[in-house]
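Can't paste images in this forum, so I'm doing it all in text. The chain is below; anyone willing to post the predicted structure tokens underneath?
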Amino acid sequence: MKITDLKPNTKVKLHTKTGDFECIILESPNPEIILVKLNSGYNIGVRQEDILDVKIMKTSKIKTLKNKLIKQNKNLKNIALVVTGGTISSKLDYKTGAVKWLTDPEELLEFYPELLEIANVKKIVVPFMKASENMDYKDWKLISESVGKLCNDSSIEGVIVTHGTDTLHYTASALSFSLKNLNKPVVLTYSQRSSDRASSDARLNLICSARAAISDAAEVMLVGHASINDDFCYALRGTKVRKMHTSRRDTFRPINSEPLAKVTSEKFESFTNYKARNNEKTEVKANFSGKVALVKFYPGQDPEIIDYYLKKGYKGLVVEMTGLGHVSTGESRSNWIPSIKKAIKSGMVICAAPQTLYGRLHPLTYSVGRELEKTGIIYLRDMLPETAFVKLSWVLGDKVMSRDVKKSMLKNYADEFSDYLKADEFLN
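Text version of the structure:
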């Protein structure tokens, strides 16, 4: 049989001039190149002339749970899944070699049945399916409303939100602010590789998330790998976490904070105080403003960026400032102070967050900072820039809080501020 006669999704063993390997045939746009997926998950192209022999092994089949009921174990607690997209909600298309959305979110449970040994998945809610980089403040509201409804469902013990990694920390902050009087665990999780891959990190993340969802912590937390090994996860506070690596499974790290807990399939071991689950009614306050921007200052940056946003009608800016809270002032060829004063006088709110991520802003240490502080900039202590961006959007979107933006931005709603910073929290 010619290898060109083989259909995509056929598993074969190739004997080539450079070696032997097992792989799955993919659809190739070039008839002279055979595109295959290796067991490692990587795609490679092999020239037909280099293939000496081919042995058909089997056709790969993808399991699905379409139209099947999820079995309930009366001895287990009930949780809910809110599926929004991202790599964790995708699988490999063996025809093209690319990943695509799961056609049925219940397939997650087929890939990882171990989750059902910890809790019953009583409800699955899909407000939308999209890559996280395509989400915006309107999507935060949709997720918040879906989660809030489940929090007030007495039959549900906890909620897991599956999400893409790229902007997961933004959504974690959004839920932390928008869910008032939270009464049960809300757990966000992810994967860096699609759920059907043998090397996927989704298995441990989902299993640990299920354990966290039935814990006593009424917190918005992000649960994922604590290291590159498949041993345990960390539960991280929603306002103090950030994606810190493009591809590592332990990409999410606590910033200016310690983990809430160490989580395994068996145990939720807390490291710090948290709000316990309770019988309060969770209130959803999820009106975010779309007229907020996040600006990173760099040396020599023209302050016209502030003028641009002012002309566009933006209500607020979060500026990632250098060091203890600085941008260019009088000694610079690009003095920001006139533009800052003009914007604030016109009603724009300008907040400062640390570009360093770690540490706290101290604008009064240097004369430059004192000069900037007098303009009316709101210095947000140790708050992460992304958290600050989400919080300012949340505050400006609320009729009551927006009456006194400075007071609202400096109020600690969801542990976004730390009372003090510990030495061992740096690069934790």
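The longest strand covers residues 51-59. The first helix runs from residue 107 to 111.
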